[in-house]
Design a protein that fits this description.
Strand order of the largest sheet: 3-2-1-8
Structural class: alpha/beta
Order of helices and strands: EHEHEHHHEEHEEHEHHHHHHHEEHHHH
Largest sheet: 4 strands, parallel
Low-confidence stretches: 91-113, 315-341, 360-367, 391-403
Number of helices: 18
């Protein structure tokens, strides 16, 4: 499972809470945003860009663009009249969707949704909403040869500078295929915060079906491993809790638990067979149910076992603070013996405690560290204790039935 994601289809992230979850899921996330595009990032994204190397800006390579262009050209040339009839910027385009751009997201014909600024444009001449594609310049998402062909065929039109406007449905399919090819080429995992978009995984091989068959088979889950990690994290961190966690705290958490995240990635990779089967499911509710069942059978038992093992050692971790429950019987030969030897004099006993109890606690802390380090789900335990908003006092209240 690649630990670096490829964000698509847009140039700016659309959902801050989704990005927070991505921050806890991936080592890095790559996005295709040309440098000349107006910076419309929100404050969360700006902070991540300034303080971390989590967000990587990258453009498709010439090889990637050539592969996508070759496949599109082959399908277009095989039946040009059909594709122009379906996606041409003509009167039929206006009739297919409501002329209001804000209604596109509700159209039965639209498989993506209204492109956000600056990737959408309203064409006053054709009275239609188009998706803008960056082409023919640095960091382009479409090669010049393909864009010129689309313009010549009436499938695109120039739109101020290095941009062409396209039928939004055709543009969303193109972006899905571009993401699929780039992900394969660069060993990345496609991921999106727009669940209404075309699935990128396998889009290149399904291009003809995506273009002409409204009933094309589309798996419900984009990337099963990614979805599984999100299910696991959402189980220990409620979405509304994560929304309230400051990004600075998330950054510190990532820095402190990088090794544990890598171990959890390996744990998820061990479930590849089951996840590949779930990835074939086309119903989103059913696929989600399978993911939750897999978590309950494979991951949660290990998390519960880790908690039990730590409790057995007399150690709890809450809100990032280690709480040591000293077993006085186990320490009787040192702690109690030292106090007794001091004749009950606490000033003298404190020195004895420093000499005898501190090594005792240190040994227990080391045992905890070893226990946590050996568990592939220790990352979830850390997220539960440090990011969920639960505290030791709250846990005691829950156990006693108090609110």
């Amino acid at each position: 499972m690649p630990s670096i994601a490829l964000y698509y289809p847009w140039m700016h992230f659309q959902d801050d809470n989704w990005l927070k979850l991505a921050l806890l899921t991936w080592d890095r996330i790559v996005r295709m945003r040309p440098g000349m595009v107006e910076d419309l990032d929100r404050e969360l994204v700006r902070q991540l860009r300034a303080e971390t190397d989590f967000i990587v800006e990258a453009a498709p390579s010439p090889t990637v663009l050539a592969t996508v262009a070759e496949t599109f050209t082959e399908i277009i040339d095989a039946d040009p009249h059909r594709i122009v009839e379906r996606y041409g910027l003509m009167d039929s385009f206006r009739e297919e969707i409501d002329p209001s751009p804000h209604d596109l997201r509700y159209s039965a014909y639209w498989l993506g949704y209204e492109p956000p600024v600056p990737q959408g444009t309203w064409d006053m001449v054709r009275n239609s909403y188009m998706l803008r594609m960056h082409t023919g310049a640095k960091d382009s998402k479409m090669g010049t040869g393909l864009s010129e062909k689309l313009v010549d065929m009436g499938l695109a039109k120039p739109s101020s500078g290095p941009w062409v406007g396209m039928h939004p449905k055709l543009g969303s399919i193109y972006l899905a295929v571009l993401t699929d090819v780039m992900a394969r080429s660069e060993m990345l995992s496609p991921t999106t915060d727009d669940l209404r978009m075309h699935k990128a995984v396998g889009a290149l091989n399904q291009l003809a079906n995506l273009l002409f068959d409204d009933q094309a088979r589309v798996p419900a889950i984009e990337h099963a491993e990614n979805a599984y990690m999100h299910v696991a994290l959402r189980t220990v961190i409620e979405p509304d809790k994560l929304a309230g966690v400051p990004v600075a705290k998330l950054i510190r958490f990532r820095e402190a638990h990088g090794d544990e995240l890598a171990a959890f990635h390996e744990h998820v990779a061990s479930l590849t067979t089951e996840l590949q089967a779930i990835a074939e499911v086309e119903n989103l509710e059913v696929a989600s149910a399978h993911l939750k069942s897999l978590y309950e059978s494979k991951t949660r038992p290990q998390l519960n076992e880790l908690r039990r093992a730590l409790r057995a050692q007399g150690i709890e971790s809450s809100a990032g603070t280690l709480v040591q429950k000293v077993n006085l019987n186990a320490a009787a030969g040192t702690l109690l013996g030292s106090v007794a030897a001091a004749g009950g004099q606490l000033a003298v006993a404190s020195a004895a405690v420093a000499v005898t109890l501190v090594p005792y606690i240190a040994s227990k802390v080391e045992a905890r560290r070893q226990q946590v380090g050996d568990s592939p789900v220790s990352y979830l335990l850390a997220a539960d204790r440090e990011l969920s908003g639960r505290t030791l006092l709250g846990a005691l209240h829950r156990r006693t039935g108090r609110r």
